[in-house]
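Pasting as-is:
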Amino acid sequence: MAIPTEPTETTETTETTETTETTETTETTDSVSARSGSPGSWRELFGPDHRATALLIAGVMLLDGASTWVTTSLLPTAIEDIGGERFYAWTTTAFMIASVIAALLVSRTLSLRGQRGGFRIGIAAFAAGTGIAAMTPTMEVLLAGRVLQGFGAGLLAGLSYVTVQSVLPERLWARGTGLVSAMMAVGFFVGPAIGGLFAQLGAWRLAFAVVMVLTLPLVPLVARAVPPGRQAQDVSPLPMISLLLLTATATLISTAGVLSEPGLTVAAIAAAFVLVTVFVLSERRPAARARVLPALTYSPRSTLRWLYLTRVLLTAAASVEAFISLFGQRLGGLPPVAAGFLGTTLPVGWALTQVAVSGARPSVLARLSLAGPFVLAAGLAVTGLLQRENASPLTVAAWAAAYLVAGSGIGMAMPHLSTAVMGSTTDPREAAKASAAMNTIGLFAFSFGAALAGVLVNFGAPSMARSAHHVLFALAAVAALAGIAACLERRSAAVLSRSGR
């Protein structure tokens, strides 16, 4: 068990102390496992006590997962109507940048508005952005709608992790994070289905209207699902330097993903790495008054840094999903709809496995977290070996199976990563920050991975098979690095456990 946090004479305890406070609030993942007992069941999660919370989390993550795919499916039809083809790529870029900014503001929103207020802001922003997209006369206005959508989605996703940690009992954390992944995967199917249907009917605006209407049932759930807001004196300083650095990083990464010149793309990614390094150096300073990540992240008495690093590397490797449909069309000759569903195989493998293992005991989840990254690496490597021009239907089926296996590796690792992060401290504010950071670093890692994959695709051109080999083998190596980070986390947890922490 962790030693309770002792009060200090300042009002910025969790923001300003690095050594003493960190030591007092640290818990190893082994100690979390030891006190968590038997895991809760899906019946308990959706029982009377937690049903509203589960439905709220499920609803917001379904919308988050579906929104991008709805837009992607509709965009070619929308461009024929309103023009603006030169802004095509920026519909995703604008959404991502806004999501990152919102994710960075989750802790601040909790301080000012509490969980209820945060969810209401996120739902309102998402609904308003979707409504703007439905009524847009031009592509420029559609981009404005996508910014609001992205802001709402980023805020809601971050709040979902915080809600799992702060509202659900610890025995349900693995189930709650499994629900987050499962509903994202469902969204990957619902999005193309809604978008494709209305695009086929030539009524693309109605698709956005349907998504907006689907947000309305979430409003009454908020008051039942989450506790009331915090008091004004709990407001923490805004980490402006960190926010500016990470926003600039997100912009560079997003820009790298749409640049056609490989040299410029490499330069943008390199500059983003520099900004991330500056961010880490700034955050770990003992004198830092406010941080995006918990102070525990930079403490040798915590495994949090290894947990986050594993999450970053896993998510970066998972960014291959952004290119699965492209490889399916160019190498397998799949029509767009079939290629789109091929692209969902990796996240579906992720979600199904995470749901399946979320009821395991913490000690089992910890062992699965060691194997998961290597399963992901093996799945990507096998898929890379199978990439070839004019692939047969049997080969395409083998791709799908290998992607499912790769996704299952992520699903094996994520329950332990999520629950260990949520249980890394007994300080409520730092625990909320640690939980929200899972979404923030996930957004950045996916963007970095997709930008890197884009560079590798360009390096392999004009041969798409060579591009696929570059991407899949490189990201398999990244997944293997995640396995090394997971081993270091387990080793660090064992050392801390033996030392009595």
